[in-house]
What does this fold into?
Amino acid sequence: MNIIIGNNGSGKTTLFNIILYLLGLHKNKRITKFLYEIDPELIVNIEGQRLSFKRTINDEILIEGDINEKLNTNELVDFYSSLLSPQFNVGDDRTAAIQIIRASFYTQGELYSKTDRDNLDNKIMGINVNYLKESKRQIDVFKNNLQKDEYSYEILKTYINNVEKNIINLQNNDHIKGILQQEFFNMYDEIFENKKILDQATKAYNIILEQYDNLKSERKILFNDFLNEYIEKTNGRSIREYSSSSNYSGSERIRIEFLSFLIKTVRHIDYPFLNTSGLFIVDSPFSFDMNNVKEIRKMVERETKLDKLQYIEFCSKDDTISPDWIISDLRNKGALNWLRVD
It folds into this structure.
């Protein structure tokens, strides 16, 4: 448990953004301007690798420790993909790892759209929806080309009929008819074969789609089981009692959202197909009137003690925070003198 406390305006959100910046996940001109003078360093464990992150004046990311790399921001996608090695039901997803790392940062008000959230949930659950989308795209392209061939086939049929009418009085017209008929049948055979291929591909796609739907349902049930367990551990009302999130109060919905993010970041050791980062960095998650905050933090602490999670929280001081958890108090004079904060 790593908790940094401070009053409003003391630099909590700035530090939150600096972590994003050093990991190459955020670019903020205001931060960049004074960081070059400070030369900050982030030391973190990801997938059992102890790593130090710095950024150079040329906007390169310098990584030292168990891995030594100098990367530009465009190379981070492959670096995080290699580091996390996310698993999928089929194929791979090159951009998934950096999105999973980015999803480890939680702040109220910065919510994903439903589409982005569903996309991210699929990546965390190890379901490669991009593979399914690409398969559908290729089938649609093949189908469109086949429709063009069928249109050409009808034109050829009309053309052959017209030619046959005009060569009735020509000598050797049987030879010409034979050539035309051969082309006609060649094209017919090709269309017929392509229709068979399209039919087989569509059936295969529908089977895979059904498998995806079943797998997604299974893994959503697994996540809901985790969520119910977390909610019950924090003395909250189980989501099993409700059919819709609209039955919750505002504070309950935010609590469930926080716990949902926790599930998507903690390491699920018994379920290696779930792709999570093991990092959870939060900015003022409990800056609202909410019950059971102490129980929630203790539950998070349990996950850190089991080595399933690294937790960093930026917040104002409250009586639910154990002194053992506080690693920095920004209320101290000069705590962030580089921000010119008294």
